[in-house]
Design brief:
By secondary structure, the chain is an alpha+beta fold. It contains three helices and nine strands. A three-stranded antiparallel sheet has the order 5-6-7, sandwiched between helices. It has a two-stranded antiparallel ribbon with strand order 1-4. It has a two-stranded antiparallel ribbon with strand order 2-3. About 20% of the residues are buried.
């Protein structure tokens, strides 16, 4: 269950479910492996309803999504190779310091996918294996988004953009280089 540098270890399934909670406006859905099992006549033999719980605010989820989009969409981000041609992507790459594990967990407005590459025996990855996770993620996500209409991550009503001073993080004033950021409305700076 070791992944990256997390002390107690986490499985790819657990990590992907955590990212899916961000993608799902802060609602965590406990992973399940089936929803229904039917017999040959269409009768339900087994049914499995997912358990959900709200784990953080919708505004927090969107602010995280906005930050994770920059990993993929910013020209200097570590996930620029993971862009999809028809869909926005938010996610995060990761590696252990000795390059024994590599991963990417990312999501679109439709799906969340996590890919880990490494050895169960904690060996170093060969150079040509260090980008395998990105290639696999891109191919899977490109294919499942092929016929889907473009969608955007929805901005909650209590999140707004504000122009701030790039140095201080306060409201922009004269002589200050500026940048535009998203804020929960109650946290928008009010002083210069």
């Amino acid at each position: 269950t070791a992944l990256g540098g997390i002390t107690q270890g986490v499985s790819t399934l657990e990590l992907t479910a955590a990212y899916a909670a961000i993608a799902n406006s802060g609602t965590y859905t406990k992973p399940i492996f089936y929803t229904k099992v039917l017999d040959h006549s269409g009768n339900i033999l087994l049914e499995n309803e997912p358990e959900t719980s709200q784990v953080f605010r919708e505004s927090t989820a969107y602010l995280l999504t906005s930050a994770l989009q920059s990993v993929v969409e910013d020209g200097n981000g570590t996930g620029t190779a993971l862009r999809l041609s028809n869909m926005p992507v938010a996610g995060k790459t990761g590696t252990t310091s000795a390059t024994r594990d590599v991963w990417f967990v990312g999501y679109t407005p439709y799906y969340t996918c996590g890919v880990w590459a490494g050895y169960d025996t904690n060996e170093y990855l060969l150079d040509d294996c260090k980008s395998f996770h990105k290639t696999l993620w891109s191919k899977v996500m490109t294919r499942i988004h092929e016929n889907l209409p473009r969608a955007e991550f929805e901005i909650p009503a209590n999140v707004q953009q504000a122009t701030i001073c790039a140095e201080s993080g306060l409201l922009a004033g004269l002589g200050c280089s500026t940048k535009t950021e998203y804020f929960e409305t109650s946290t928008i700076p009010t002083v210069r």
